[in-house]
Amino acid sequence: MTSDAVVLLEACHFPPAGTAVDLAVSGGPDSVGLLLLAVDARLVVTVHHVDHHLRAASGLDARFVEDLGASIGVEVVVHDVRVGPGANLEARARAQRRAVLPPGALTGHTMDDLAETVLLNLLRGAGVDGLSPMVDDPTKPLRSVRRGDLHAFVADRGVVARFDETNLSPAFWRNRVRHELMPLANDIAGRDVVPIIARQASLVYDERRWLDELAALDGRRLDEVDCRELRDWPRARLRRWLRARLRDGDEEHPPSAAEVERAIRVVQGDATAVELAGGRRLSRRHQFLRLG
Predict the structure, then answer these.
(1) Which of 112, 121, 132, 163 could form a disulfide with 204 if both were Cys (CB 3.0 to 4.6 A apart)?
(2) Do 196 and 136 lie in a common domain?
């Protein structure tokens, strides 16, 4: 193993050697780097490639991943999915990809992706969860690795990864953040801002965990707490408590910030009832909340 590989592995958050893992590998340099490092970490690897058939070269991408897997002795599973025309193509393709990948599949997101996601979520109006993405996420083992270092590692291994031309398209917000906003931020700050944003995300994550622990201390249901008591709570505590109670068992899709704010209006008496996602309705009767 080269010294560069050793240094990168020290920055990775892989499980112990011998652990069976599923990897999402598109064929691009990030996911190829993930694959090579996972093999170096002596993990038992199964590669999953999702062919969305959205690009003319997608079949070549799948063949590249199959050939690469065969050359290093790992199993490759190709998933064929079809994404119909229409709005929000990127989001629908992502949903299709998540649907076919095994739960807990590892992805090649780097520290640069983490920083870009923070900025994207900030532009979309995210709360503390959106400002601390990927931190401590076991499916993102490269979250402390820089993209440039990963690409150099792949090139040094003699692997020519696939290139997805859509990664340059200004039609996608992430590309504009990556190619326009991030360089501008570096120029304004006079330094590389990615580690700074990543460190801030880690700090926000610590605060977020503390808020979650505070919310969990009070295990009462929505209909067990008088709204007059809730109105005396600090807003951050109330917001976190409501968010947990309105999650409705869906760990992947918690209520949006807008839904929580609507729920707070009911608590404060500014509304007697509000509509929530999933056809649910939150109302207040005799100072107690009801979710129907």
Answers:
(1) 132
(2) yes
Give yes or no: residues 71 and 119 share one domain.
no
Cα(134)–Cα(140) distance, integer angstroms: 6
When pLDDT is averaged across residues 130-153 and rounded to a whole number, the result is: 96
- Of 61, 71, 14, nearest in space to 37 by CA: 14
Whether residue 274 contacts residue 263, with contact meaning beta carbons closer than 8 Å, is answered with yes
Please count the structural domains in the chain.
3
Q: What is the pLDDT of residues 66-97, one digit of tens each?
A: 999 999 999 999 999 887 766 776 777 778 88
